[in-house]
Recover the amino acids of this structure.
């Protein structure tokens, strides 16, 4: 065993998992025209380990054995470890042209969160099971999707509320026996699940005692009986209306995962009934995962800023004062994100020897990009001009009767070929004025938790400091 | 002559105009699958005049003759006239399910602007020609597209700058003779042009003396020789992935209009060389047209606010404090827009007996909706949830093996059918997280002029007040 | 009887009212050095009626009798009436150099709100008493302060909550007898009370049945036994560090009014126990009073914008692009306020023949200026420069050894005397970087109710429209 | 020689320097009632070195000699050195109750900037002079004020522009001879100058060749002949209207420093005519000094956040959702500042062995707090309530006839003494609704350079990255 090749990774996905897309069953995710691109993107994590250029970044040494392992499965113990992981995430996303591989990275997030939480709980059997499972994943170099968000039903109600239409809006235990448990429910918008080896299911919120059947964490193979992947379709090829580009359209699918009474053996159950720790686990996952989110956003935002600068130059406006102000605002957006993401690593919180990205700062960094993303998009759309959505298509360009007109009239600054301008507009349109662009806006808000979720954690984690600063103010006010 | 029927309007469009879409020539715009919907939307202006429910609003009386004419072609003389026009525009857009007919309305904007400008110029021949042309349009009840935005080339340069790649980035006169002039150039993102009777071409900016060949305004039939419509394709039918809805998908095309040496007789030339008035005309058009824009935005925004409230209720969150705050912010956005749009009518500027919507306030109202639109969209996306972009498709729904799971797991608040929730998400996705949604974001910024264009006018039109307020401040400072 | 002169108004204030300031009792408010300026500002309402230039604006005709009355006491019946009142308020504040007289205006607000509420309640005796009292005020041309804000104690608790330290945090009835009632409690930040003839006390919030002893509205002379005015001191003269200016420093005092078991005869009791209407009355007052607030803010903001333009010119920066952008933002701020304030009048809600400024729009206009005021101040401080707070004083200027240096080195643009620049900086500092400036920031937020109060009303008053727009969205979604 | 005591520092200030305040000459700055407090605050830098608790932080070891020196005079060579300096600055400001000592800190900023710039210039004589002067300051443990901002005159013009009223709006050389140079001009808002040993004068902007007489940097003793300190007065004692507090009111004076033909020997001249490096020096100073600014803002903001939390609790509103949202926004403001300030240290730019805080990030951090400060203040004013500016005074409180009423009626949450609430309001008012509060707002904008200055540097320093990101975008667009 040890690090797997891309080929081995793909072979592992041909295991009769039940995957649906567009209402039809998928035979082989690695060859399905839509899902294939997701598989390729996910495979980047394996490719990097094979590439001498990235190997040092992608591969770490397992401390106990000295074996090479994926850095994603190296448990961070210091700020430096977190910064190294940070660098890996940013680099992988740059290689993915703005798309994160999203398999081992989120797997590391959830496994690390589990390790931390088990220690907080202090139950030996859980510590053992999780350590075993982590070792299992690490040694087999598995990819693991993280199933977090329940479908929730009425979002104002608790999982066990009798006012919900039915009791299954949050994944729950419906049976316990000697070998394990049976679970029922559904998790939604689970990224990359159909091309991961395992699914690791976590609770998505804090719970009350009445919700204890929903306080549940377990791992399950992606091809488990009763587990259904209903995938959201995605763009995977260019349209004939577009200038052909030889860079793939990378997108991950998001699935609705239905657990139709799936059996989980006890050795893969990591929380079952300990309702007090559901929130702890969800929080710990968020610290790791929102940091991961900030990392991939850095690489995305760099690209988008590059598009903005390019189109400003092509349009001949990059020296106009209002344009420079906009570019400056975009730099501020990006560099604030970068600083926050690195600061979250530099000042970790230690839990039983594991370095957790700073809870307040990591939530800040995710909040920063999400809260301001629409404003950022608006500035790029503003620089691009209305032609962003009225430009003629590649089909018009191919028509010899029209091409001359288009080439003549849609030129920008002297020296910039009209085709370059149209191609850059096409790229911007694809990212920021399209189905994908709308999806990215929604993702900014909802992937890795809503704005409100980040705000609640920032406030909640800050109570000690608030009281400390209050005491200082009281002293200055002469209150004794 | 007099008011035309819908049928007459459509018949008028079958005149061998040169229209291209997707690189192919269009035989008949009224039957072309893509353009047909635009024609239907445009026809609403004619339908309203035939409908007893809207006739009073849609039809006015020509003062000199007492004849019934389209209210769009009634020259406003009072605040009340502007408010009545305002009401017509909002109502027509409500009937268009958020889409403005965009033919006679923008025609009225440009004709009124021409009338005002001719009086400012004080040249009798222009006043006569314009009055004649206005009467021609009014009596034949024509639809007229307004060709405003030049393709511009390097946007930091003047039309006549030798640093432009060629001299034709702004439409210009290339020949003058006894019968008329010959014009060359291209206008871009011209809405609804292929299904209008005429095109009225205006300059899009202030000009210098060197630019005088570009200071040009004229009307031309849409089928004139040498005039080519290169249309941007648009969504016109539902996809099989969508729940079927029996409301049409209304969208207008935006065209690149190429003037390949088109002849214009003198009686249709309204500006030719008088560079000092190019800016005046562009400004006057903007006052009318940005007011029109504010009106259609009111109807759109009402709909979008309705979607927000619906999905908040379906998700069970409409009583959460942060949700009410967001809804409140949206109400503030909409009601500020409404107040500004009406205030622009209530305080018109009079030019030779014509009431022009208040220049500062009308630009304010357009600026208000454009500047804040992305934030508005963000709030709705936030309320809808990530499911907005990960929801299963109608194809999944149709599959009996999957439907049960979807129906069970994607329900929201008790009592709301899952299908209703999915349909509302589909509607929101269509408007605010899609190709169309991206287009609407770009339109908010660029249709009717960029944010920067509005800011410049607001500042420019306010110089007198600035000095007056400064004098008051000086008195208070004891400066004599 | 009829309109009073300024002299009569002042004489009426010498009635042994119990007024305290700086811990000392005030003998005569009209001559007290600090309060005198407030009296003078309040007197503007009387002066305008005497001044032929403003008489038409300040004086109306009582419909029933044809007698001249203060326009503030004319019950508005149409949009035009509201617009006329609007004009009076803006004009009076301009005459007050940015300070509203604040006596008859707020009196009109509260009397009109009482009239509306009495009709909503439908209790004849209240309608009569209020009509009588209104006539009493109108015919004697009285000034009336409005006592709205209770001291509240723990602001998270209801008036009657047993968790409050004592039961008197909201004004309440402690005794009822044949002649009238006895009231106890305190109202805070009551503007101009010591130089009004009467105090009209209103509830400041909606109440529950348990709070019925707090559901209280009554009028009382300012010199009633047991009524104590504890006034907040204010700036009333220039410091020797300032360039002398011959415009008075106008400021109103805000008082803590203590009702130490004050007797109120039944004919001056307008609500007593009808807890259901406490909120109605508070709301109705807010509609009138927040409109008044918007009006005085217009005149203030004009002045502040004038200061910004002046200092930009003196500093030589008014053509820099970022400065023009800031001035443009300030114009947008002011003109949006103006449009909203007028729109609130143009679209009134009618209650029993009384025109109430549009509830949503009037709250919007107040919210607009309050929400954005700090940003507005920031822009002016930005344009003024650091010298705003480091400029030498008038004492330095008077020293002949220093004056030459100051005159030479603190000049700005050529042609602008250094003294002018220093005077303008002094004016800006006084308004926007001083005790008064800080006070104005706090007033923007809290006078006439907090931001949150306005948001709650906007949301609350909009429920019908929300449902209407939702229904439209449902139709578009194909939900039947 | 070596580290000085507080006593020695103060003695050094009694040297007949020419200091004016309120138009009068100051005999001894250490005993003058107004300036004394500034001296005490400045002395904190000396006190910390004497205090065993802070000695490790305040004192470093001079690498060449092993001697103890002020850490402010230790040239940073690594990220860790910058972080240690960061910690010293934050700690010193916490000890100063929110006010930075501002003598050795800014001295270190300017000396380090000089060292970096001399190396960039590569002129040996300058490197030597600066090294000598740095050693002079270090060994004598001097305090040094930095004279940066010229008085500028017309701010749209260059120093040498003939359109300026006179040529002395920027400090310039008026004579050169064998011993040195004679300088003329004035620097404004120079903090703490009258109680520093030396003044180090730097250019405040980039210059052109024509401006070469203004490209000037030199050090001069604070008591040099012809050097006049015209100090801005400041608050230094409590008013009788305030509850007495035994914490001093710490404020620094800002001076207008007039150089009336002051002689500077060559060994203290560090730039004279090399106009190309004026901007370099100003930029380098800004990198160090804006980082210093971010550090002291951290300590200030902690205090202000403490006040916000305290008053929310005293008012009984800290659990209201809109209050928690505001506190959350304040935490975000503070923690973003902290992360940016630390990130500027973690990623320094190296210049000849000297670690410079990251130019982009350090400007970002200063910009962040300045851009958002007014919003932060607004939130605290909002939580405090209108009583912030209407609360009775200490004089009222002392009056036995009034105290009972005040104590009863101005209480907040049960258990919080009314006096505590009034004291906390007084503290907040002092910091955020007063002359000082206004001053802090202006300082946020202008101290250490305007918002616009930071934006220009951020944009300017980012050109390389912009091009790099653009190239990535081009690749994705298929542009070759």
């Amino acid at each position: 065993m040890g690090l797997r090749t891309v080929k081995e990774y793909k072979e592992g996905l041909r295991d009769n998992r039940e995957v649906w897309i567009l209402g039809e069953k998928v035979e082989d995710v690695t060859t399905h025209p839509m899902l294939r691109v997701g598989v390729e993107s996910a495979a980047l994590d394996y490719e990097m380990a094979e590439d001498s250029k990235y190997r040092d970044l992608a591969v770490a040494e397992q401390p106990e054995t000295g074996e090479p392992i994926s850095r994603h499965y190296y448990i961070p113990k210091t700020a430096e470890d977190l910064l190294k992981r940070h660098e890996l995430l940013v680099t992988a996303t740059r290689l993915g042209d703005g798309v994160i591989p999203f398999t081992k990275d989120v797997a590391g997030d959830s496994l690390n969160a589990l390790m931390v939480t088990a220690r907080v709980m202090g139950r030996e059997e859980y510590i053992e099971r999780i350590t075993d499972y982590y070792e299992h994943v690490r040694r087999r170099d598995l990819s693991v999707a993280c199933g977090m968000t329940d479908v929730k039903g009425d979002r104002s109600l608790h999982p066990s509320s009798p006012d919900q239409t039915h009791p299954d809006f949050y994944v729950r235990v419906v049976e316990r026996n000697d070998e394990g448990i049976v679970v029922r429910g559904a998790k939604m918008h689970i990224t990359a699940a159909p091309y991961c080896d395992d699914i690791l299911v976590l609770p998505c919120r804090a719970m009350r005692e009445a919700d204890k059947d929903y306080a549940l964490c377990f791992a399950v193979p992606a091809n488990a009986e009763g587990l259904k992947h209903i995938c959201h379709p995605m763009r995977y090829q260019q349209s004939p209306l577009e200038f052909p580009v030889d860079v793939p359209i990378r997108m991950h699918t998001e699935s609705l995962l239905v657990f139709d009474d799936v059996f989980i053996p006890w050795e893969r159950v990591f929380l079952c009934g300990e309702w007090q720790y559901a929130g702890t686990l969800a929080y710990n996952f968020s610290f790791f995962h929102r940091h991961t989110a900030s990392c991939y956003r850095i690489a995305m935002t760099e690209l988008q800023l590059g598009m903005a600068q390019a189109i400003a130059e092509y349009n001949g406006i990059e020296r106009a004062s209002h344009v420079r102000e906009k570019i400056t605002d975009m730099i501020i957006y990006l560099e604030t994100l970068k600083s926050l993401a690195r600061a979250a690593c530099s000042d970790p919180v230690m839990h039983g020897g594991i370095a957790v990205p700073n809870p307040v700062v990591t939530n800040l960094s995710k909040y920063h990009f999400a809260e301001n993303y629409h404003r950022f998009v608006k500035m790029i759309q503003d620089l691009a001009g209305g032609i962003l959505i009225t430009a003629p298509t590649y089909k018009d360009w191919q028509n010899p009767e029209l091409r001359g007109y288009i080439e003549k009239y849609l030129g920008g600054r002297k020296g910039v070929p009209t085709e370059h301008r149209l191609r850059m507009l096409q790229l911007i349109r694809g990212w920021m004025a399209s189905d994908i662009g709308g999806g990215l806006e929604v993702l900014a808000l909802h992937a890795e938790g809503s704005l409100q979720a980040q705000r609640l954690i920032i406030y909640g984690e800050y109570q000690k400091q608030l009281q400390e600063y209050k005491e200082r103010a009281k002293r200055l006010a002469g209150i004794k």
In short: The CA atoms of residues 156 and 405 of chain B lie 57 Å apart. The longest helix of chain B spans residues 278-315. Chain B has a mean pLDDT of 96. DSSP finds 16 helices and 14 strands in chain B.
